[in-house]
Design the sequence.
């Protein structure tokens, strides 16, 4: 499998604080790759450097063979790299329908957008019932689904998922990961950031573990699941 | 005061208030649309109005161009000037140091530059007046006396506001502006080009300022300090909640009407105080403004 995304020696900082140092990772096309680590390890920063919200101080980011580290955020989205941010980053005062339409902001193929709209509502039937409702009034789980749906409306080739399980009940977590699995089976490549290592190692094929902004460990997910130090530190048993 | 006179004053106050209020409403819209998308109160808004007024004056009086060229040319020039200021100056300031305070200071800087520039050219030395768009003729509506110019002002302001609201609600760019106002990070993640949207927002704000300048200039004496009229736009914006576009419009009309009623019923010397009393009243009774929505508590 060729690599759809490749980070080589990426460093980033907030002012004087070094957030990432020399991070390298690869996401092969068609796979789910997990990026794990504790709070503040630099997982979200890694996603934000790829989405071009955080500038890179050194290193290179290649998507589909092209260097993208000097692109603007909207060019990355247009190129097919779309992030589902952590938390409730919906457009609060817009309707669910408007939120989904905003997802297709950079697209001009009206017919295909309508088809994708239907496809997204089939993935998330709950959203269909709430199309005219203000997004800010949705429950946490529904907002998470709206975020996923909004990202899918951009027709991504690579989905960057930031903590999709955060703050959700176990039933909802299962539901969300069921959908992630389905999306991947339909051909979508996914880079998944998670604190819930148990879930992430189950649904990914390869995983990286960040510690203090540096890559500490990497390996096939089923191997990491059996690794003693990983079990102690991240799986809690 | 008899009841008859009071009723006459009431009609006159409301009629005059709506007319001047429509200009305040435009100014408040111009302020709020920038604040909503970048949380920067634009302290050069008044000077943008003043500069647009002088551009129109220059083209009309000194170049003797016809009105149908002067008006669109002035609006375009204000749109381009404001958009370029955002792109060239504010973007640079934001990149050098992201703190919003610096952006506010940069807008103050622009206000001094524009005022200084108009003084340099010499146009601002003597108060001038802008020829009215239509010959003012007196008309009675009920018992209130207004002029044809007043009606043109009111109608133009309402058409501009309607076009603006339509754009905000129904066009892709308008929706992107709302998205940036609600959540700039999420807007970037769906592919909104923030630089472009900020330029358009500033351009629109400049264009609306130019319309306000064209409408108000025939009614006031033009000086390099005429930008202070925007104080009333700020008052209208605060009364309306500062982040609400409909609030800005309602606030504008309210300030206009209150000013006129105070002038008629109390004393014309109290007119300058009226907007500030209105602000204080609103801030005490409803701190978030009339249309400000819930009070949000932010973690610092």
Sequence:
């Amino acid at each position: 499998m060729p690599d759809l995304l490749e980070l080589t020696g990426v460093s980033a900082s907030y002012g004087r604080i070094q957030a990432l140092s020399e991070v390298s990772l690869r996401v092969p096309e068609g796979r789910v790759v997990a990026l794990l680590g504790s709070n503040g390890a630099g997982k979200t920063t890694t996603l934000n450097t790829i989405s071009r919200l955080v500038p890179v101080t050194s290193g290179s980011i290649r998507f589909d063979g092209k260097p993208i580290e000097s692109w603007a955020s909207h060019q990355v989205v247009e190129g097919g790299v779309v992030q589902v941010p952590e938390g409730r980053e919906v457009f609060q005062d817009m309707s669910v329908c408007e939120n989904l339409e905003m997802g297709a902001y950079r697209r001009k193929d009206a017919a295909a957008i309508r088809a994708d709209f239907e496809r997204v509502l089939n993935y998330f039937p709950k959203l269909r019932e709430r199309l005219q409702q203000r997004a800010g009034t949705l429950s946490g789980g529904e907002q998470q689904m709206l975020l996923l749906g909004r990202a899918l409306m951009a027709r991504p080739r690579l989905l960057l998922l930031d903590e999709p399980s955060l703050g959700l009940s176990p039933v909802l977590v299962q539901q969300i990961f069921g959908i992630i699995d389905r999306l991947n089976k339909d051909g979508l490549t996914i880079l998944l950031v998670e604190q819930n290592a148990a879930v992430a190692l189950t649904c990914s094929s390869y995983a990286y573990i960040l510690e203090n902004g540096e890559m500490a460990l990497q390996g096939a997910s089923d191997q990491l699941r059996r690794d003693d130090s990983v079990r102690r530190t991240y799986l809690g048993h | 005061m008899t009841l008859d006179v009071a009723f006459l004053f009431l009609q006159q106050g409301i009629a005059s208030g709506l007319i001047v209020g429509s200009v305040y409403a435009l100014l408040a819209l111009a302020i709020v649309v920038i604040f909503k998308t970048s949380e920067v109160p634009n302290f050069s808004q008044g000077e943008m109005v003043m500069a647009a007024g002088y551009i129109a004056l220059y083209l009309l009086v000194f170049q003797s161009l016809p009105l149908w060229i002067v008006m669109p040319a002035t609006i375009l020039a204000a749109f381009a000037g404001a958009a370029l200021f955002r792109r060239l100056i504010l973007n640079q300031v934001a990149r050098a140091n992201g703190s919003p305070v610096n952006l506010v200071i940069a807008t103050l800087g622009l206000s001094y530059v524009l005022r200084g520039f108009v003084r340099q050219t010499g146009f601002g030395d003597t108060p001038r007046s802008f020829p009215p768009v239509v010959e003012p003729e007196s008309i009675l509506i009920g018992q209130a006396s207004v002029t044809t110019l007043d009606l043109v002002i009111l109608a133009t302001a309402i058409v501009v506001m309607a076009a603006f609201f339509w754009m905000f609600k129904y066009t892709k760019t308008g929706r992107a502006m709302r998205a940036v106002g609600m959540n700039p990070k999420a807007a970037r993640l769906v592919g909104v080009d923030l630089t472009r949207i900020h330029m358009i927002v500033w351009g629109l704000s400049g264009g609306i300022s130019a319309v306000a300048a064209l409408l108000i200039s025939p009614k006031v004496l033009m000086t390099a300090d005429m930008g202070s009229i925007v104080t009333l736009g700020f008052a209208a914006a605060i009364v309306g909640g500062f982040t609400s576009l409909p609030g800005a419009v309602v606030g504008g009309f309210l300030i206009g009407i209150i000013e006129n009623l105070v002038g008629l019923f109390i004393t014309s010397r109290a007119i300058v105080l009226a907007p500030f009393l209105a602000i204080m009243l609103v801030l005490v009774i409803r701190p978030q403004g009339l249309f400000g929505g819930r009070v949000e508590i932010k973690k610092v």
Observations:
- The mean pLDDT of chain B is 90.
- The CA atoms of residues 60 and 68 of chain B lie 10 Å apart.
- The radius of gyration of chain B is 20 Å.
- Chain B has one domain: 3-285.
